[in-house]
Amino acid sequence: MVAEVKIKANTIEISNYLKKLQKTIPQDITTALNKVSAFAVKQVTEKTQKGQKPDGGRFTRYAKTTRKDRTERGRQVAFVDLTDTGQMFRSLTFKANRNKSTLFFRRQAENRKASYHDFFGAGKKKVVRPFFAIGRKDENKIRNIFFKSIGIR
With the CA atoms of 38, 42, 48 and 54 taken in that order, what torsion angle do they form, in degrees rounded to the nearest 10? Predict the structure, then answer.
């Protein structure tokens, strides 16, 4: 049995189609990065303000003096939400380009606060409450959002 395949192609059309793809793919990637970055900012903010760590679980409770101070100022003390004035989370944003996206705090003061909570430890006992991360479940959601945005899957 012999099979014969004939392909007729207009090389100009193919060439034009490939050029169009080269232009639209970087735009699609940038759009997808913007979408996943906005989702990541939302997840970090919402989970933290609910008192949840990125991968689940709760933060270490506030110290007694902190709870007393927060109660006097009308703040909630049922769980740690790392929110006092709200400036830190309002400062959380992102910047995306063709290749990558970066989450960051716009103001240096808020960046410093976040680093103490997330890495160095806050208060007299230097309690570390890691919040500035993406959980495993959220990584999968981000991956799906990205691929859906660029038309894969």
Answer: -60
**94-136 pLDDT per residue, tens:** 998 878 899 999 999 999 999 988 889 888 889 899 888 888 8
Q: Do you know the residue count of the chain? A: 153
In whole angstroms, give the CA distance from residue 54 to residue 44.
Answer: 7
Phi, psi of 52 (to 5 degrees): -105, 145
Which stretches does DSSP call E strand in 49-148?
92-96, 101-105
Say if residues 23 and 136 touch (Cβ distance below 8 Å). Answer: no
One-letter amino acid for residue 51 of the chain: G
The model carries a pTM of 0.80
Residue 23 amino acid letter: K
Instruction: List Cβ<8 Å contacts ≥24 apart for 135-138.
Output: 135/43, 135/47, 135/53, 135/54, 135/55, 135/56, 136/55, 137/55, 138/39, 138/40, 138/43, 138/54
